[in-house]
Amino acid sequence: MTEHLHPCCDPSTPSAIWEGTPSGEVIEISGIETYIAKPPALKGSSPTLKVDKVILFLTEGHGIYLPNAQLLADSFASHLNCDIIMPDEFAGQARLPKNIEPSLYPHKVIPWTEDKNDPNYDLRGLAVPHEPEVTDPILEKIVSWIHESYGQGVKIGGVGYCFGGRYVMRLMGAGVIDVGVVNHPSFFNMDEVGKLGRGKRLAIFAAERDDILPAEERRGTEDVLTRTGVTWTSTVFSGTEHGFSVRGDLSIKEMRLAKEYAFRGAVQWFSDWL
């Protein structure tokens, strides 16, 4: 079932692994494994501490156990001084294995496990379709937990990568969040973009070469955002490919700088609008 997957959605696709040691923790929320990153000043505090904002981090197909995603979540927590909530949107059905040790891979890439006894072996990649009817209920549980834990008045920002970018926009269109950042978003449709309107703030960070979000589709998205009155910005980085901001090869200067600029741009966007 996985032979038709785009590489960005298939955890069997090797990924460059960034240096660093993630400092967050994985907890279960309504049965959903969720990585939570806290700013240094709040380390060890209660997960139900009342704060004024949190960021919902929605991953691409490699999921919450990709070290790069965890490192990004940690960095957002530190720079924005708030908790980052990164749920497993795939309910364990499309993810890298837990307890990844990058040192085991001399070329610093992580292939999908070939352990046929792994209960997820037959579900490699997105073998089970993860359409809105599957993913939306998962995110509803997470959002409910956020409101119960942090207070009904907490402001929720959303940052999404590839697959997760679509769901940041869906949450914005549904009125759950007002401020979002999407990095090389994929598989969304213009009806979903059209549900965003005045009062919504969306930043797009896109790759120059992206067969999922080609230039004409990105420009069409910008046209819809303009018509509906969204406050938006869109940045394209030359020399980059789809996935650069979370799985880019940092030994390539263009990729490294684009990843860094996209991260700083997201931090600034949330600082200005959330």
Can you walk me through this structure?
There is one protein chain. This protein has helices at 67-80, 132-150, 163-173, 190-194, 215-228, 244-247, 253-273; strands spanning 25-29, 32-37, 53-58, 83-87, 155-161, 179-183, 201-209, 231-241. With 274 residues, it is of the alpha/beta class. It has one domain (7-273): Rossmann fold (3-Layer(aba) Sandwich). It has an 8-stranded mixed β-sheet, with helices on both faces. α1 (67-80) packs across α7 (253-273). GO terms for molecular function: hydrolase activity. InterPro entries: AB_hydrolase_fold, Dienelactn_hydro. Pfam families: DLH.
Which characteristics define this entry?
single chain, 274 residues, alpha/beta, Rossmann fold, eight-stranded mixed sheet, 7 helices, AB_hydrolase_fold, hydrolase activity, Dienelactn_hydro
Structure described in brief:
The chain has 274 residues and is α/β, with parallel strands linked by helices.
Summarize the biggest pleated sheet. 8 strands, mixed
Mean pLDDT value: 85
Regions with pLDDT < 50 over 5+ consecutive residues?
Answer: 102-114, 123-128
Q: What would you call the structural class?
A: alpha/beta
Number of strands: 8
CATH class reads Alpha Beta
